[in-house]
Design brief:
With 694 residues, this protein is an alpha/beta fold. Strands 3, 4, 5, 6, 7, 8, 9, 10, 14 and 18 form a ten-stranded mixed beta sheet that branches. Strands 19, 20, 21, 22, 23, 24, 25, 26 and 27 form a nine-stranded mixed beta sheet that branches. Strand 5 (157-160) and strand 6 form a beta hairpin. The N and C termini lie far apart (80 Å). Zinc ion binds next to loops.
Length: 694
Amino acid sequence: MDHSELASLIAAASPELRAELDAAIARGLRALEVPPPVRMSVWAEEHFYLSAESSYVEGRWKCWPFQRAMMDVIGSDAVQIVTVRKSARVGYTKILLAAIAYFAQHKRRNQGLYQPTDDDRDEFVNTELDPMIRDVKVLRTVFRDAGRKSKNNTVKFKKFSTGVLHVRGGKAAKNYRRLTLDTVYYDELSGFDRDIEKEGAATKLGDKRLEGSTFPKSVRGSTPKIKGHCNVEDSEASADLRLRYHVRCPGCDEEHPLEWGGKGAKNGMRWQGGNPDSVAHIHHCGYLLTQAEYLQIWGEGRWKSDTGVSIDAEGRFVDAAGQVIPAPRHVAFHVWTAYAPQATWPQLVREFLDAKAKAKRGDIADLKTFVNTTLGETWEEKGDTADEHELQKRAEPYALKTVPVGALILTAGIDVQDKRWEIGVWGWGRGMESWAVDHHIIEGNPASEEDWDPVAEYLRRRYPQAWREGNSLPIEASSIDSGHHTQAVYNFVRKYAGQLRLHAVKGSSDEGKPIKGVASAQDVSWQGKTYKNGVKLWLIGTDTAKDLLHGQLQIAPPLPGQPCPGYVHTSTDLPREWYEQLTAETRIPVKTPRGEVLRWIKRRPRNEVLDTRNYATHAAHMLDLHRYPDKLWTRLEAAVQPAPDLFTAAPAKPARPAKPDARETEMAAVHTSAVAGGDSGWRSWNRNEGKSPW
Ligand SMILES: [Zn+2]
């Protein structure tokens, strides 16, 4: 049958037959276009090579069992969209590189790969893509410019004899225009802005480039971020099929995925008596699967959905009854660190226990990282506003301007307003447990130098202790905001540099900035004089400090007198206004040019108590209190709140020295030499004791 005969036959056929014939012809033509298809996992084991720069082990690729079907589905022409919600350490980047090589050499496709930003792109090309192209031998026949700079081999563009590869940062909408692609990849999808310059999601803009392709393919992989604000979570939710890797339980023969579990969970990681080395994966039948045993049976595992659909050894989709079914349009995988041999299970438990201990003290950063990058799960933000009523209800009956028992060292935060200074003084104890000790307002004009004198005076005061054997404590360090009256603040810090441990600070609300940021030297211009590099200015990660305080305020109250790392104690003598200011901000999603981010926003006009708390926290971090090991706290405790002397002091009426001043001097001397004193005393103490883990 020649072409005209075929055409007339089609014209005469019924619409249904015509559609079938069209499809048959398309399939026939496809067969001519591509070489006999080899599944990606098979191709990769034959041709893919791990480069030394980016791998623990250089050499030929060998699939981990759970990677095989992931690769085959990514390489399949029948599946249009693949979403991979993943943790770190599961080899996803290598799968991505293998896919690029496979689609270039074996399937001859035009490809585009997006990274969240141009910087991410540069790093990916330099450390991953270029070494891969150099080391995978079969690419040499289709990419002759490997290893040399040319217009066909740039950081943005690679021209193969069989197609092209564009590599782009995903921030600008223009980067998604004017490309014609068959395959588009989004690496670290959840790192992309939620809305690309108001034109929509990255996947929407990038997938448009696939229109017109015979085999359009969109590959989206990422560690997840915050629940409800996470691109890969959104993509996974829209999938037709969601799969997890199942292994067969040796105890009851049932297939199940590996789960982290958690307290009281029937399935998940279980260890005994706080010993990470005893970890095993418990199944609800009671069987405990060790990692060694898992690594013996993982080869017989398979990807399976809640509805029983799975992928067989040939990469086909099979329903619960074992029948092969058409491939779904959009398939999602979830995989996390326990599946890979890269990390040991005891190691994961240790990471978790460390992160949990920090979270107990109110610092949730590591736990969030664990959930996102080890479990591959979204992080659920909760309680974005602390409640001032609840907070005031749990206040304790201790006197202000007195150091409560347990607080061993004081720092202050100072906020400068147009007509006043506000000074918040906090006491710190073991594990950064803290007590509000004082909030003091001084009226005056910061533009006038002599008005600062009462501020300096106040910072020099000492606070009596509630501990009956204890002596008064000074403010060890202070941090002062330089946002208003900047030069006046610089001048103050410069002027008292030798007498008070003072830090000028400037807030930075960039995401993830440390509380104690970097310092830079600033000139001080004051009353016609310039002091070159007269003062150090410290950046303070204000959002980080607010996140930390927010976490600390969630800690449940301890039993009276019991230590409770991170807990924030407040006095019943503090007014409602103080509580309202401490909780004046709430964390909400905000639309920015970069997309949606979580930001602290004022819900009340006044927030000075919160600001001074954050500056006092900065001052505490300047003293490294947040990294004190237990033994340093013990040392400090012995110096500041020594145990009552049972032999000389009558318990009911402690012996008082004849002259209180003499005793004060003596105790101050102990404190100074042992703990803080002048700068040199502090430093030498820190140096001597400082042979510590950090
Ligand atoms: Zn079982």
